[in-house]
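Standup notes
- DV: blocked on the single-chain target, sequence here:
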Amino acid sequence: MGIVQGGWRFASLPLTFAVLTGIFANIERLEFVPGIDMLETYTGYLPILIYWILSIALFLLAGFILFSFRDPKRLIGKGIVSPADGKVKFVRTEGGKLHISIYLGVTNVHVVRAPIYGSVKNLLHRKGKHHLAYKPESMNNERWVLTMNTPSGEIGVAMITGGFARRVIPFMRMGDKIKKGEKIGFIRFGSRVDLLLPQTFEPNVAPGSRVRAAIDTIAVESKDPGKESNFGDAWVMSRKR
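- DV (later): unblocked, structure below
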């Protein structure tokens, strides 16, 4: 399993202080180390127990950061695959598009992947608010919107910030060719990803479905293209994992 670029840099500060406070907690056991006596004057500021607690907490923080920046390898699924890990919040048609929204929790992988192969037609950054991603107001949040030309028509992937996820990092540029399942962006510490598909597709998921990026088929070719539907006849992925 890899780590997204920048993950070690973010984790380095708490990791450094975790090691330092760990040394303070064990200063009496390290008297044989040359120069360790120079640090002994600092250990008296706090009880040894506090140094232990701080060291453990900082190690856990560094571990959480690296966990959030993890980048596991994925086997690519069939059809239109999910662009993100998480829970489907809603599935609906609007403006002649099939709109599927996925909420990424803090424990999900935050790498965003291409739902199908194609090329980058447009990459737009839109400034906005930073509401919690699961709230309706998050429709006004800051985002990067990637528009793809694909064999199935024009497809949009919106990578949206949240209350804690303040940074979206796109990996693509205008005109880039994209393979299905290829990494197209990263949202630090989770948020929301929206997928906009032509009406020639119907959803393979329902609100509450758990999906994995690049693995799970999120939409299939419609049996009745262009028809407004309540998706009752779609094969719907189980909500359980």
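- Follow-up: Residues 2-71 form one domain.
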